[in-house]
Amino acid sequence: MMTSSDKKADSLPKIHPLAALLRGFAVDFITGHDISVAERIMAPGYCLSIGGHLLNGRDAEYLPPTAAQIHQFPGLCVTVHDVIYGDNALAMKFTEHGASSRDGGRAATWRGITLFRTDGKQLRQGWAEEDYFARKRQLSSGSCDAVDPPHPAPWDVLPAPSNPETESVALRWLSSVGAVTQPAGTDWLSQVDDSDPQPAALFDIHATTIDELFSAGDRAAFHLQHEAVYKGGFPDLDPGLAGKPVIVRAAGMLTVRSGVVVDASVTTDRLGLYRALRFGQ
């Protein structure tokens, strides 16, 4: 029997199902620390590509490290800065932030971009990169970066259909050698410490492979891998490593107008690059 509160809830305005999925991920699951939400919003076969690793399977490979991060940051929050909703595809630019129980309660903020493919009801596959290099620096120094302003209404943005022209422009832009390292207007990182090396200073791109790309009107989201050469730039690494071939991964969101990329946000896996150079991974 439906109660009066149930009827009242059913009468409330509904957000789009894709927005509800993303809100479930960012708010109920990560910020709310409710691991059981994953069973509702993610298919059992959900897999995530991040930092060169494939977490293949929701319960066996994805949830354990996610739960470990929540355990390390008991007050972990997600602030959403931008969203894109397409044809059963969605993307989010965000900052995770909290205090680390492993680091004497020191706080950190770190930016990321994540993409998802869905079946309209559950998340099926994800691609993401997060700026763990910035997190490492903050937890070591004890100086926490600021969090950028949130999107005013991320769950009220409506989906847009795919746009072949947007995808064509995005592919040309992403595939042009060096275009991703320092395009005009690109929001690479926010509140970066003066001692933090920018991606453009770290490597030269020789070739780019697009792992995932989708469009929604004049917006597009992507995940890619660069075949690159390390130029130097990490102050505590051997200068002799300059010239070493490396793989660099990045995720981003962009806007196309009049056949030109006019705005982009990109998160690069600088920590993965650093570790590959230092430990030969």
Would you kindly provide a brief summary of this structure?
Helix content is 28%, strand content 37%. The protein has 281 residues and is of the alpha+beta class. It has two domains: 13-141, Nuclear Transport Factor 2, Chain: A; 164-279, Nuclear Transport Factor 2, Chain: A (Roll), CATH 3.10.450.
What does this structure look like?
The protein is of the alpha+beta class and 281 residues long. The protein folds into 2 domains: 13-141, Nuclear Transport Factor 2, Chain: A; 164-279, Nuclear Transport Factor 2, Chain: A (Roll). It has 8 helices and 11 strands. The protein has helices at residues 4-11, 17-31, 37-41, 58-72, 132-141, 164-175, 199-202, 270-279, and strands at 42-50, 53-56, 77-85, 89-99, 107-118, 123-130, 186-187, 203-216, 219-230, 245-257, 260-268. A 6-stranded mixed β-sheet has the order 2-1-6-5-4-3. A hairpin with a 2-residue loop joins strand 8 and strand 9. The longest helix is centred in the first third of the chain and has 15 residues, at 17-31. It is globular, with a radius of gyration of 19 Å. The N and C termini lie far apart (59 Å). The relative contact order is 0.14. The model has no long low-confidence stretch (mean pLDDT 91).
Q: How many H/I helical runs?
A: 8
Helix % is: 25-40%
Mean pLDDT: 91
Strand ordering within the main sheet = 2-1-6-5-4-3
Q: Count of DSSP E strands?
A: 11
Uncertain residue segments: none
- What is the class of the largest domain in the CATH system? Alpha Beta
The CATH architecture name of the largest domain reads Roll
Oligomer: single chain
Specify the structural class: alpha+beta
CATH topology of the largest domain: Nuclear Transport Factor 2, Chain: A
Radius of gyration: 19 Å
Strand percentage lies at 35-45%
Overall spatial form:
globular
Order of helices and strands: HHHEEHEEEEHHEHEEEEH
